[in-house]
Amino acid sequence: MTVGRTLPKAAAALGILAFAILPTAGLPAFYDSFFYLVFFWVSLSTSWALLSGFAGYFSLGHAAFFGVGMYTTATLTTKAGVPFLATVPVAAAMAALLGVGIGAVVFRMKRLRGELFALLTLAVTFVIATIILNTPIDGGAGVFMSAVPVPNLMPTQTGTIYMLGFAMCVLTLGIAWWVAHSRLGLGLFAIHDDEDVAEAKGVPTFRYKLIAFALSAGIAGAVGGIHAMYVGFLTVAGTFELTVPLYVVLMSVLGGARSWFGPAIGATVITALLYAFISGGEAMVGRAVVGLILVLAILWLPDGVVPAIQAWLKRRRPVEERAQAAVVPVVPATPHRIGTRNILEAKGAAKRFGGLQALAGVDLDVREGEILGLVGPNGSGKTTLINVISGFYPLSGGTITVDGVEIGHLPAHEIARRGVARTYQIPRPFVNMTVLDNVSMAATFGGSTRTTAEIRDEALHWIGFTGLGGKEEALPSELNLHERKFLELARALAAKPKLLLLDEVLSGLNPTEVDNAIRLVRAIRAQGATIVFVEHLMRAVVELSDRVAVLNEGKLFALGEPREVMRDPRVVSIYLGKAYAA
Amino acid sequence: MPSATLLGQALISGVLAGGMYGLLALGLSLSWGLLRLVNLSHFALAFLAAYLTYELGTTYHVAPWWSVLLIVPSMFVIGLAQHWIFVRFKVNELGSLLITFSFAVMLEVGIQLYWTADYRRFETHYATWSLKAGPFYIPVLELILCLVAGVLAWGTWLWLRKTYVGKALRASAEDADIAAAYGVDHRKLAYLLSGVGAAYAGVAGTFIALIATLAPAQIWAWLGVVFAVVIIGRLGNPLGALAAGMLIGASESIAMAILSPAWAPVVSFSVLIAILLWDPEWS
């Protein structure tokens, strides 16, 4: 184990050292230039992946940030006489600012995901290019950098630019590694798979996306600042070329955009290929070959080369035997005691969608430690109530408090932090994460701050608790419906909720599975959680609930002890029509 | 401020130039809106068609209205072949964007290897014909282009609205599985639509050959603006694509007349950004 860990570290250190002393080795300038280009594309594609690969916000506007960096350095050095090195951080800051500016507007709109985000960023690139072209920043004539002094970091000028490019590359990979292994990265991966669920599990999605955008754009800006010096002559057409965003995408996708070093692999391969064809005088053929490689890679390795190799290695490695004792949910024999304090209080809670009044002023108190069944005909507002309590929708009117704190207008992740967890009627697992990662993720963002080892134990405990032991490394697509429903439960439990909202966990399960689930819900309550559950299955409602709340047309219709409520003729009539109510 | 005549002329030229945007946007809008495939190679196919028109016209002296009869069916077949790849490998939206980008690059390289990177111009005696209406000149070729674009857009709209095939296509775009459960053979229809989209690229290409100067890198010149048109016109809406094309063409042309030609790109993309952020009912 120790060898397995120290070996890659030692190799990385050796590699960094070797590349760092390369310019002093007296190789022809050709090598400096070639390696500089590799570093350039590695930095650029890795920075793209921070937002687009990790969080899934696919941008075609990377040239905008890169170009803003280039022109920041060019303007400051040629027009204001600022020393070259001092301009690079400014270039990064300008690009990051642009990224945050775009993000602050765009990330508020749920529509602007996927291809619309891609085209929006592309459009921003064209607008910025046109502005730079038509203002004194460029003015259409281009900017010469030849008079700008290059600091003497290395014996030769190309050596100095090589070193800067190399430092940038190491820094970028360092940042990417850190992000991928941090809480931020975990949140971004969750956003990639399902942003709404990520938010409901406690990920501050808006802030995380902005941070990722700032990092991504900032690195691109710094790379651009250095690259201005490398090219020596800037034109708008050359800087804001369509090939920059497209090559960046190709390299990342080829290598594996969700892996922190995938883009680096893709960038190295493609740069080397292009260089080989260019130096062989066949630049055009080179472009076609790169295109062909991309087609083949996407068709056969849609996740990229690095994930494909990782999956292959994982298959070859013998499966680790886990000495994990099955956790048996324990239901205490003594009846549960329900507190007198209200954990949840809704007063006149209303939610409108345009002209539709989904909730028309619901008053409902939930006591600490109780199991409240929420029933009502289709369209009565049950799921909407769950959605406003968990913060998926803001309230249109009234108040909802959890532990005395008003939450009706808080973002979902803050409600999750206050101890509210939910499940989804149709399971919505993070599809690219294993069962273990799905549950650990919820434990990381939902509960109190804990160490990685504690989170892992916690996650394994809940996986065992919900009967998913042995499936830790499976992807959600490998689970059946019943298991996916229990994965929903495990994820909600890992957040250690005070208040658990269950949305039709029993629907679609067979009678034995329903019995298991009922036992499970009782065991959850025994551990101290309060449970509100929406259910159509009356047997489960009557067996589980301490009280039943009936919703009809967005209002609380009846509330009380389950058997009484279900026998109430008014309740029967809204379910089955008046004729049956007698 | 330029004179009213100049502005009027700018408006006419802009609307007519917008017909080309609309025609190019038509095929893209169909495959994106109804098949969820983003087809960047659409531009490369249009240019391939343009170069073929040029080659047939200059080397073999075939008039464009005859060569179009050869080119459009060929493009239809290419569209089918491309769609076979998407189906065979279950390519998603993002994958289609990257794959068709690669196709476009390969086509660009192929064009450059055969026709070189030099500018090519298909000279015809009717290229400069124009009608005079009051103080304004209306170029005949571009007028025909707009009429053809209008007929195709209208016809496609009717096809999607009124016929079984069209309704089935729209049903499949909403939910392919449910449509299939009601007996819609989505796969056959998707092939048909891909072929038709590529055939439209062929029609656009013929006009590009007659109106524009050809160079391989020009493939990318219209990409941004046509995507803006597709989105503004609403995905999968043929009449919307044409209307948006003319709107963008006119606003670019007027911006050129009032400000300077170099500012034109800002117009289309600002309109695109504004519409994406604003999301009006009609778009």
Automatic annotation (TrEMBL), chain A:
Transmembrane regions: 12-31, 38-60, 80-107, 116-137, 161-180, 210-240, 260-278, 290-313
Keywords, comma-separated and alphabetical: Amino-acid transport, ATP-binding, Cell membrane, Membrane, Nucleotide-binding, Transmembrane, Transmembrane helix, Transport
Topology in membrane: Multi-pass membrane protein
PROSITE patterns: ABC_TRANSPORTER_2
Domain ABC transporter, residue spans: 338-578
Cell cycle in keyword set: no
UniProt GO molecular function: ATP binding
Superkingdom of origin: Bacteria
Cell compartments where the protein resides: Cell membrane
Pfam families: ABC_tran (PF00005), BPD_transp_2 (PF02653)
InterPro entries, sorted: AAA+_ATPase (IPR003593), ABC_transp_permease (IPR001851), ABC_transporter-like_ATP-bd (IPR003439), BCAA_Transport_ATP-bd_LivF (IPR052156), LivM-like (IPR043428), P-loop_NTPase (IPR027417)
Gene3D superfamilies assigned to the protein according to its UniProt record, in alphabetical order: P-loop containing nucleotide triphosphate hydrolases
SMART domains for the chain: AAA (SM00382)
Family: Belongs to the ABC transporter superfamily.
Full protein name: Branched-chain amino acid ABC transporter ATP-binding protein/permease
Organism: Reyranella aquatilis
From TrEMBL, chain B:
Chain ranges passing through the membrane: 6-26, 33-53, 65-87, 94-116, 136-160, 189-213, 219-242, 254-278
Pfam family for this entry, one: BPD_transp_2
Coiled coil: none
Subcellular location: Cell membrane
Entry protein name: Branched-chain amino acid ABC transporter permease
Membrane topology: Multi-pass membrane protein
Keyword terms: Amino-acid transport, Cell membrane, Membrane, Transmembrane, Transmembrane helix, Transport
Family: Belongs to the binding-protein-dependent transport system permease family. LivHM subfamily.
Native source species: Reyranella aquatilis
